[in-house]
Design brief:
By secondary structure, this protein is α/β, with parallel strands linked by helices. The protein has helices at about 5-20, 35-45, 85-95, 130-135, 155-170, 185-195; strands at about 25-30, 50-55, 75-80, 95-100, 110, 120-125, 140-145. It has a seven-stranded parallel sheet with strand order 3-2-1-6-4-7-5, with helices on both faces. Helix 1 crosses helix 6 (about 185-195) and helix 2 (about 35-45) runs parallel beside helix 5 (about 155-170). The longest helix has 18 residues, at about 155-170.
Length: about 200
């Protein structure tokens, strides 16, 4: 369909694909509110996260809102798992380190975490946080420092704070200046995206 291949559209798609951070993933574990999930997708698109893993062992898989996500889910690949072990194993097989957001005495301060390698960031349920199994399976835990009376952020806000720290670190390292993909892979993705 030629109408999807205007010069400006191809330019925007090409720039977006070249900025995608294929070594950065987000994992959502049992987040109940689909609006929260949609908001995370929107931040993922803004920062350049190409893929989100949805691990749902208790809650039902969410329906991503086109309004809340601003159709970001259209541009982000998703992979669903109903087993924490399978989800984490799939990331480890690809060489990802998995860090889960959790307030714990052994957790690392977000700002001391190196987010420039192959990293997957896990965010848990609004009320329960991440599961015990996820705590055991993750390579590490991290927390977002807070100085008020309340010691937790909304899941979508926590994801945004964390992902923008990842973006900052990666920008400093020049990781947005050179794509992680080959020209052949970029051109294939451009063709795929032009059909969306």
């Amino acid at each position: 369909m030629r109408k999807f291949r205007t010069e400006s559209r191809i330019k925007k798609i090409s720039e977006t694909i070249r900025n995608r951070q294929f070594s950065l993933r987000v994992v959502i574990e049992n987040v109940h509110d689909p609006h929260n999930v949609s908001a995370v997708f929107r931040t993922c698109d803004a920062v350049g996260v190409p893929k989100v893993l949805l691990i749902y062992t208790v809650e039902e898989f969410p329906k991503i809102s086109k309004v809340t996500s601003a159709s970001a889910n259209k541009w982000i690949e998703t992979e669903k798992f109903n087993s924490i072990q399978e989800g984490i194993d799939s990331l480890h097989k690809e060489g990802f380190k998995v860090y889960a957001s959790y307030l714990d005495k052994n957790a690392i301060n977000l700002y001391d975490l190196d987010l420039t390698g192959k990293v997957a960031l896990v965010f848990g349920n609004e009320h329960r946080g991440i599961s015990e199994e996820m705590k055991e399976q993750a390579d590490g835990l991290f927390y977002i420092p807070m100085y008020g009376m309340i010691q937790s952020l909304n899941i979508s806000v926590a994801a945004a704070v964390t992902l923008y720290e990842a973006q900052r670190q990666r920008k400093v390292k020049g990781m947005y200046d050179k794509s992680e993909l080959t020209e052949e892979e970029i051109n294939k993705l451009i063709d795929d995206w032009c059909e969306k």
